[in-house]
Batch of 2 targets.
Target 1
Amino acid sequence: MTKKVLKFGGTSVGSIERILHAANIVKKEHSQGNEIIVVVSAMAGKTNELISQSNSISNKFDKRELDVLLSSGEQITSALMAGALNELGVKSKSWMGWQIPILTTGEHTNSRIKNIHIEKINTYLSNGGVAIVPGFQGISESGDTTTIGRGGSDASAVAIAKIFNTDSCEIYTDVDGVYSTDPNKIPVAKKIDKISYKEMLELSSLGAKVMQPSAVQTAMMHDIPLQVRSTFTDRKGTQIFSQENIDYTKVVTGVAYSKDDAKITLLGVQDKPGVAADIFEPLDKNQINVDMVIQNISSDGKTTDLTFTIKRNDFKKTLATLSSNKKIKFKNLNHNDKVSKISVVGAGMVSTPGITFKMFRALADENINILAISTSEIKISVIISDNDTLKAVKKLHTIFDLD
Amino acid sequence: MTKKVLKFGGTSVGSIERILHAANIVKKEHSQGNEIIVVVSAMAGKTNELISQSNSISNKFDKRELDVLLSSGEQITSALMAGALNELGVKSKSWMGWQIPILTTGEHTNSRIKNIHIEKINTYLSNGGVAIVPGFQGISESGDTTTIGRGGSDASAVAIAKIFNTDSCEIYTDVDGVYSTDPNKIPVAKKIDKISYKEMLELSSLGAKVMQPSAVQTAMMHDIPLQVRSTFTDRKGTQIFSQENIDYTKVVTGVAYSKDDAKITLLGVQDKPGVAADIFEPLDKNQINVDMVIQNISSDGKTTDLTFTIKRNDFKKTLATLSSNKKIKFKNLNHNDKVSKISVVGAGMVSTPGITFKMFRALADENINILAISTSEIKISVIISDNDTLKAVKKLHTIFDLD
């Protein structure tokens, strides 16, 4: 007897037809003798509709009530999915966060799942029923409805897989897996069959919107094998598990890029403790999300240069924040609001020398200037001019044998 | 300290603007030192939208899941209302049926409220908070979500007023009270300031869609004073309470009518026990709602004539049922599918002789033929030809001093 979590994202349950389609997938899995817990997102667009309603009332809408409001989205899908399965002749029942209960850490709009009572659902599963559980929601110890952050249905699915100790956790979505780069822009992009949690984390932080990074992280911590696959095709999808289980034939797994970035360099910043904090604290307060931060060792022991990247639409706000804050001191400011970030990711990089050099040589061959560099254990990122983005991605995709 | 239930119907919370408007009414009542429990319906159109979604999945959608689905409508309004009040500076919190809890008799889609735990909300009220409670929903003893039937938010409001022992129960709606007849068709119709439960019951069963009859009945049983008033004007509305508290200056309180009726008379039906049951049982099985039933004493001791009315769109189905059922025997069938029912209602009628005669004379003066008559303690209803409806209502409205 295999126990499975099947999670359906917003587009997979975005209409009545799609809910019925997803219910048929569940029926098939159930008829093969599996015990199934289905985790559902709100129907595509629903959460945004509810958020927009709350914003029309207040731009600081009460967070407790926002949780009550937003949790209705997954409640609706759960009931429709259970109704659809019953219509297909599959015994099925929905369980809201408060009914199970799913206990969270209690912060409104940003909780984490702490514990799930498994008894009632396990009894139902062993009696042949399919349990439908709404993602994204739970209750606090004090009995308030709490949600676990935007896109949190992935995290719900992983937590449920962990606590129910299921054999697998399958994430049904509108893409058929994780790709070596963006298949919409780079036609030679290839679906990746197997990828490690770490690589997946790097790729999803870099903009591959296949799974929520925090959910991948939880899966990694507890070694829960994931499978990302399309609701709309029968293709196999991408398996995500720990690095040891992957037989790497390629050093680089994928090439990711983010456009719409901007780069700011502060020249002649004092090289003493607390300076970086003085710079980034006001940015954080103004809700400016800083991505890459690069600081070289000081050459004269007194001053240094600090480079960081932000989203392009935060560019003006960032300049205003930097210039209006008297604590922030520097000699010169150098900026470029038309840059992009290109990253090559691969668990095999750790043990393979020369990847950095190979990447830089390839970009140089294409006459692409590197504006900044940052590396981690399994990733190399460079900042280049926006115009060169696709040219760079194509070149790197080719030289690292991904085509 | 006055404790009040304020109930807002679907059109009163039909948009974000209207929710904010309703929240301002609540704020005003709260600022006058009242303890307030707000009961809300789903936003206008929401319940129908959800029902239509469930129907697209199955025409016999699982009732347990339908309750989970439909209860989301009131959940959404509750959260938006609580958020709106907080935005207006009024401490407010929503409480779902499961959080209070509101315990019901447990039937899916058709429960009644059995008990409500009042402690948590009472503590909150006495600490100056406004409690928002969704109408229409509760939970069964076994912890399932249950709803209390369409339009059940009125019943929720009355049950809450009863169990919390509030001083009043105000029903905010899109009309400014109960009228002596339909103000859209008869411009001389007058708003009734005070009306008894019984009269209100007769009028609402007769098609005045101001309040759900079952909610009025509960209020009558427990002597809970109601007030029906408009969310959109400051006018006083209609007070509904027990007959003893009303000083009647008029014998007739209102004239109601229902169009789209049809009349069927079975001539020469056998006059023996069980015949009526034989006739109405198959109609009931085919979900045909029979309204008036009139049967005279048999003149020959052997056969009698039986007249009944139904909705016009059930007419063909009724004829088919009558002719296909072999147990139903009669000599002749006489029918008219273009009739309407006119009723005069008034608690003062009990003690005032001659009302029936006055009514019949008035109709005769207008050359209107009466096809059937039925009377109760506080109501006289006649069936007439559809064409004469408005002429009859106007005439009766005038002769009973309602203009």
Target 2
Amino acid sequence: MKGTLSLGVDIGGTGVKLALVDGRGRIRRLQKFASPTKESPTEFLNIVGRWIRRFVGDRHLKTLRGIGLGVAGDVDHVHGRVRISPNLQWRNIPVKTLLRRYLPSIPFIIENDANAAAWAAYWVETHQRAKNLVCLTLGRGVGGGLVLNGVLYRGATGSAGEIGHMTIDLNGPACPCGSRGCIERYVGARALVERVRQAIEDGEQSLVTELVGNNFQAVTPLVIQQAAQRGDRLAQRIWREAGERLGVALASVVNLFNPERIILAGGVARAGRLILDPARRVMRQRAFPVPGHTVRVSLSQLDQDLGVVGAALLVP
Amino acid sequence: MKGTLSLGVDIGGTGVKLALVDGRGRIRRLQKFASPTKESPTEFLNIVGRWIRRFVGDRHLKTLRGIGLGVAGDVDHVHGRVRISPNLQWRNIPVKTLLRRYLPSIPFIIENDANAAAWAAYWVETHQRAKNLVCLTLGRGVGGGLVLNGVLYRGATGSAGEIGHMTIDLNGPACPCGSRGCIERYVGARALVERVRQAIEDGEQSLVTELVGNNFQAVTPLVIQQAAQRGDRLAQRIWREAGERLGVALASVVNLFNPERIILAGGVARAGRLILDPARRVMRQRAFPVPGHTVRVSLSQLDQDLGVVGAALLVP
């Protein structure tokens, strides 16, 4: 007999998360591992398969509704393959085939991690009320997921929702994706850290220098956030500029999707009002009035667990 | 008994079009009028109501499936109101209420004209095969409509799809919409004409001067197209630059929507390969590889009739 629990698996460049999730999106049990990124993709997935087998155990094996797996990258959810994952350095990996043997009789789906996050935001944070929702994960990269008309929107090949790679300045800095001026180049963690380092190298004084004891490898969005909260001018400016640029992108998102909700997650979003206030201000200035005033922009409550919960909830 | 014909009505800033359209989107009869823009909105709609009544006549009155009306502007399709139409200078007009009395017993729907155009492109040009389709109308303004998962996508308040007001340069020229660097400011007819005039004022030689007999009020996209086709350097550069900027926007559209098809219509699009070739090239350079190679970008065959046919086909 089928139970109400699903297993969510979130595979990222740094960590792998497993969670038993109930029908309302609540986590019943959670376990985290460091990603075995030194292994080949096949061995990586063998290791994850054994973790899953152990985590589920005999107790849940018979009643598990299914397994939902979220992976950072371009996912072919129909054939259960990862086409390409820059974070994991995977290319054309038949994830579903490799993992299925560890739990052969259980339904198994695979999805892009930002899509899974959007689904969790829709399901758990809006209780399926915001039928049109855009979720942005602001981390090392900037991922995006779309729920439109109450359905996860994937597009023709499952590649939709790459909001991080919308151009806001056609002559802007080059992006690893091959384009220029992508929003990821302004609000991704790497971009923020780069900007702070550059400014300090150029002679600006900042609390950041002190906070990292002159070790600029240790600069993170959290450090820049702490500096800003303690009144550091440079850090405050970096957040304001990042927020304003995010606002430009959100105005375009609002004009295109006219969503009820935009939900932000990820390490960079945790700076809260430092980035949210300027983003909302610029978004309202630039977007069309009706959709601009309809949309609510907020931080995710689930945040780091969005991906793993969403993957579980996507199991039919 | 209900027949298979619907009436499409397309209300724009310059013309009003009426068409009897069959279930496959073929126009059976078409009539065009100049928009009575000097009248108040109420009188404008009274005039259109009488045109409709006469056009439908007694013969079709009993069998008409319904009336679909497309209007340039922000349309509240639920309540049948135009919230705002900059082209028509309308604000909060209860179009449905005003028009219904002319044909009281017939189902009546109202939709944004670019949304209607997208629906016609999906229905007639792709035979409902391209489940995810983006339609851009490049005219005086740049409108957009979205068919996603085989459904017309409207968003929370019916305002979705304003692709013309996606920012490609955050510090670009101011747009009447209140934002900056919107794609409309680079590929709208007004922007093209402005750029040519400016270049000639700055001393550049161009065939355009000759074609309009020094009357720069007479410059249109068609004139710039003719100059380019006759080898004029300035005109060719203007089209190439417009196409490249359109390509930047299309790359973002591809990364966001991952559509099977992008269909371009409107006077500016009629320049054909002058604008399409650079747009496709830049789009492929900048978009993610899988969605960038999946999408097909083409000109509409129905073109000027997209709006009126789509409005008719939207009648349930």
